[in-house]
């Protein structure tokens, strides 16, 4: 992975990465003793391929970057403490001691691909804005994304349904709700051919899905592949819903996505490990790793 030093302050990078939903780690020097490159309060931000600002350089900074990227690679989000003896673990001539607090952020908790920027699609995007989701929005019409700006939202032209689906990252939750039934069908065909898509939702009536499933069978797709499609989307929460306005439909779709994307945290406790915290508060000269 790259150690590209980007000319951007840690606080500017932190704001941008949080806004864009990019996984990152904030590293903060919380204690020091003896001779150290920087004082407590020094910070840097680390992503998988870039670093922003510095803790003073040298081997211990490289070790901090390595520990931060291990958190990202292993999806160990939350707080952890790294302790460095600059004359021991880090082999630097300073001879001091530092404790570095790592705060690893997942960025977005889920990736949602929305195919279609009609009335319902627009309401889904608005409702999804406060949620920690990365939204990828597609439409074949050139003018529908005018003035669309919000955090973690990326807009794309849908010129080739199969290629757009092929470019999706694994574990993406997908919604198909374009203005064109043939375009919807091509998207569904491409999506059910991928085994690594997290979920597939199709807007429409029961009769629309009956028509689609008949076409899919004639095109050689299996019952197992077709069973992966949720249609109509939002049905779990809208079985008896008579309000069919775009906003109401979008509410049920977003509620359904909340259930689908709600996974338990990989960490059983919150905050620092109790032993690490005790060490930090009582004896900052003792290394924890």
From TrEMBL:
<dbReference type="InterPro" id="IPR014308">
    <property type="entry name" value="Xanthine_DH_XdhC"/>
</dbReference>
<dbReference type="Pfam" id="PF02625">
    <property type="entry name" value="XdhC_CoxI"/>
</dbReference>
<dbReference type="InterPro" id="IPR027051">
    <property type="entry name" value="XdhC_Rossmann_dom"/>
</dbReference>
<dbReference type="Pfam" id="PF13478">
    <property type="entry name" value="XdhC_C"/>
</dbReference>
<dbReference type="InterPro" id="IPR052698">
    <property type="entry name" value="MoCofactor_Util/Proc"/>
</dbReference>
<dbReference type="InterPro" id="IPR003777">
    <property type="entry name" value="XdhC_CoxI"/>
</dbReference>
<protein>
    <submittedName>
        <fullName>Xanthine dehydrogenase accessory protein XdhC</fullName>
    </submittedName>
</protein>
<feature type="domain" description="XdhC Rossmann">
    <location>
        <begin position="113"/>
        <end position="257"/>
    </location>
</feature>
<feature type="domain" description="XdhC- CoxI">
    <location>
        <begin position="18"/>
        <end position="78"/>
    </location>
</feature>
């Amino acid at each position: 992975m790259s150690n590209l030093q980007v000319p951007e302050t840690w606080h500017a990078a932190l704001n941008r990465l949080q806004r864009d939903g990019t996984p990152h780690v904030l590293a903060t020097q919380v204690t020091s003793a003896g001779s150290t490159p920087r004082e407590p309060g020094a910070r840097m931000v680390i992503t998988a391929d870039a670093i922003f600002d510095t803790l003073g350089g040298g081997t211990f900074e490289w070790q901090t970057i390595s520990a931060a990227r291990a958190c990202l690679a292993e999806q160990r989000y939350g707080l952890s403490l790294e302790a460095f003896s600059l004359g021991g673990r880090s082999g630097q001539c300073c001879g001091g001691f530092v404790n570095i607090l790592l705060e690893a952020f997942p960025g977005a908790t889920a990736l949602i691909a929305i195919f279609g920027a009609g009335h319902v699609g627009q309401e889904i995007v608005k409702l999804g804005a406060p949620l920690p989701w990365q939204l990828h929005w597609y439409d074949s019409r050139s003018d529908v994304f005018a003035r669309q700006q919000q955090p973690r939202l990326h807009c794309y032209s849908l010129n080739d349904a199969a290629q757009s689906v092929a470019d999706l990252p694994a574990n993406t939750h997908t919604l198909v709700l374009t203005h064109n039934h043939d375009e919807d069908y091509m998207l569904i065909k491409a999506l059910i051919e991928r085994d690594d898509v997290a979920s597939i939702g199709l807007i429409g009536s029961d009769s629309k899905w009956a028509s689609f499933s008949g076409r899919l069978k004639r095109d050689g797709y299996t019952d197992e592949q077709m069973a992966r499609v949720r249609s109509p989307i939002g049905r779990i929460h809208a079985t008896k819903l008579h309000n069919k306005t775009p906003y109401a439909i979008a509410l049920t779709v977003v509620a359904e996505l909340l259930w689908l994307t709600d996974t338990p945290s990989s960490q059983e406790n919150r905050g620092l490990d109790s032993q690490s915290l005790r060490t930090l508060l009582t004896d900052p000269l003792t290394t924890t790793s």
